[in-house]
Sequence to fold (86 residues):
Amino acid sequence: MKNQRDGDSNSDKRTAAATNLDDIVAFSQTPEGREQTVAHIKRRGGPLYEADSKYPDLIVEVLTDGTRRLGRLVDRKFVKCDQPPL
Fold:
């Protein structure tokens, strides 16, 4: 038999997770948070993605060797553009 506190406990866990997520997102927007995130991604060997103000509809993929490619994410996969739009 479920007691009333079981529902409260699950709700408390969700609230704590949301608070932790808020803290994580806030930290990720600080210079230290960005630095730690970039370092973590580089350690894992994956590419970085960033915006390019010249081409706001596209993203830049930065590979671990420093190669930069302009493209889009299609079905969660990076697709390189042959030519940037005019």
Remarks:
- The chain has two domains: 1-44, 46-86.
- Residues 46-86 form one domain.
- Residues 10 and 80 are 44 Å apart (CA to CA).
